[in-house]
Amino acid sequence: MGDRADGKPLIRVALVLLSIAAIALGAVWFKSARDQQQISRLYQTNDVVVLANSSAEVSRLANPSLPVYPNSAGRLMEAVVAYRLGNPPKSRAILESVVAREPENAQAWTLLEIVDRFTDLAGAKRARERLLELDPLFGEAP
């Protein structure tokens, strides 16, 4: 009987620790799910185009001999979030770094044109011209 009494506090401590770990894990999962929902909403807005929107970009992504730039998606999302949170200069800096590294990334040029549209008309014009170089049909309606 003495052995059982000695083990109870240990079991209680283990259960408390397990409960705390479960609550922490649930909180992390919930935050991650909420962040994913916010990111999804940003992708679905009408004022920001994030998907491949030009035949040049689609061709580049489909060509197995050209690099896909797997890290640019995260950087583009950072730029979208910065823009949506009211920080166009940060968004512009991120996009400038992406287009410097990936001069044929139509998504980055599109986002840069959108960001510059309200802050730097010359920059927006330059981004638009680069998009038209990448895909001459970009400016035409489907």
Question: Secondary-structure blueprint of this entry?
Answer:
Layout: H1 2-43, H2 55-62, H3 72-84, H4 88-101, H5 106-116, H6 121-134
Helix pairs in contact: 3-4, 3-5, 4-5, 5-6
At CATH level 2, the architecture of the largest domain is Alpha Horseshoe
Low-confidence stretches: 45-54
Strand fraction equals under 5%
* CATH-defined fold name of the largest domain: Serine Threonine Protein Phosphatase 5, Tetratricopeptide repeat
Structural class: mainly alpha
- Sheet with most strands: none
Give a verbal description of the structure.
The structure is a single chain. The chain is mainly alpha-helical. It folds into two domains: 37 residues; 80 residues, Serine Threonine Protein Phosphatase 5, Tetratricopeptide repeat, CATH 1.25.40. Helix content is 72%, strand content 0%. The chain is built from six helices and no strands. α3 packs parallel to α5 and α5 runs antiparallel to α6. About 7% of the residues have low confidence.
Structural features:
6 helices; mainly alpha; 142 residues; rod-shaped; 2 domains; Serine Threonine Protein Phosphatase 5, Tetratricopeptide repeat
Question: What's the short version?
Answer:
By secondary structure, the chain is an all-alpha fold.
